[in-house]
Amino acid sequence: MTFPADDSQLPQPEQVDPETTTSLPGSPVKGGIIHVDYNVEGSDVGYRWYARQKLTPRFPFGFGLSYTTFDYADLQVEEKDAVIQARLTVKNSGERAGAEVVQIYIQPQDGRYVPRLAAFERVELEAGESRDITLTLEPRVIASWDSTRSGWAIKGGHYQIRAAKNAEDAGLAAGLDLKAREFGY
């Protein structure tokens, strides 16, 4: 979930006018109904909408607090047999045991879409412990729907892959050239 810095960052920051709306029994809005236009965000909902609008939320998607700290190292990415994987080392650099959710984001170099969460994994580590993990990226997150062919298509080209702690974190980045491909449901 993404928490905005203030109401002005919301996709629809307008207030409900109780003079022009009617209440429904049990409505949490006193004196009015909130009308939501889902066309404002389009397919970029949540953290992707904030990225597209170049807004910095108070707490970005994936943000979490911990009693310890984690470091990432040695990000490597590859596509083999139409499977895209990211490998990295996660280390608990703090003094307590804890859990970290490693998030992998992908974005095409041409910027046709904002970074998308393509994989994640929760890792529990003792203080000072390191672990190598491998995450497989979800192909439909990378692809776009091609309505003329009724299937998903990944456009070939250069992509940036980022291992991050949340949607706003620069994290570790690596590049990958993907081959174009199509697939059905």
TrEMBL record:
Record-annotated Fibronectin type III-like domain positions: 100-167
Pfam family, one: Fn3-like
Keyword Chloroplast: no
Keywords: Hydrolase
Gene3D superfamilies registered for this protein in UniProt: Glycoside hydrolase family 3 C-terminal domain, Immunoglobulins
SMART domains named in the record: Fn3_like
Disordered as annotated region, ranges: 1-28
Family statement drawn from the similarity comment of this UniProt entry: Belongs to the glycosyl hydrolase 3 family.
Protein name according to UniProt: Fibronectin type III-like domain-contianing protein
Organism encoding this protein: Rouxiella chamberiensis
